[in-house]
Design brief:
Elements lengths: L3 E4 L2 E3 L5 E7 L8 E8 L6 E8 L4 E3 L7 E6 L4 E6 L8 E6 L7 E5 L1
Parallel strand pairs: 2-10
Antiparallel strand pairs: 1-3, 3-8, 4-5, 4-9, 5-6, 7-8, 9-10
Length: 111
Amino acid sequence: HVQLVESGGGSVQAGGSLRLSCAVSRYRDSRRHCIGWFRQAPAKEREGVARVDAPIGSTYYADSVKGRFTISQDNAKNTAYLQMNSLKPEDTAVYYCATSIWGQGTQVTVS
């Protein structure tokens, strides 16, 4: 079955960078799939942050992160990444990756 393991969260000062990783045990369809990053701040609804579609590699970003975050995937490692630059306090949230299932989440705190 599919399992997702996220890592890379932590605390950083405003303007700093973090890279989140999401290791996927297997995709339901290794040739065609999408994987996305979502986040949920306290007392707020979960929102989509970025998504990448395989095999074309099309990417989509929320307006709030465009130009600062980059989603990518390493197909050989079945791992997706979210590079987050120029972080702002409003980026503070639990970040989840998701494909056919949700990951457990990783905390990102920007002060």
